[in-house]
Design goal:
With 87 residues, the protein is an all-beta fold. The protein is built from no helices and 6 strands. The protein is globular.
């Protein structure tokens, strides 16, 4: 099983409005954060991200210096954290 490490953006002294718990669901609203891999970066802090249901436009404002190929935790169309995925 892959090991996943969560990296919250440094801009947060406390957890963002929606913060994933150990089960991947937001501990505040119970919605699920879903892992996705960046396929393309676009202007205005947007990225095309490969998600389980296919590519989606995702805002990457909360993740500093996003790069193609990185894994993100996506919640409601926003990347809320960077993930390290090690097989």
């Amino acid at each position: 099983m892959a090991e996943i490490t969560l990296h919250l953006p440094l801009a947060f002294d406390v957890a963002p409005v929606c913060a994933p718990g150990p089960d991947g669901r937001c501990s505040i609203c119970s919605d699920e954060g879903i892992p996705g891999r960046i396929l393309e970066l676009h202007p205005d802090n947007m990225a095309l991200v490969e998600m389980p249901d296919g590519p989606q436009a995702v805002a990457v404002d909360l993740v500093d210096d996003a790069k193609v190929g990185e894994w993100l935790l996506v919640h409601l169309g926003f990347a809320i954290a960077r993930l390290d995925v090690n097989p």
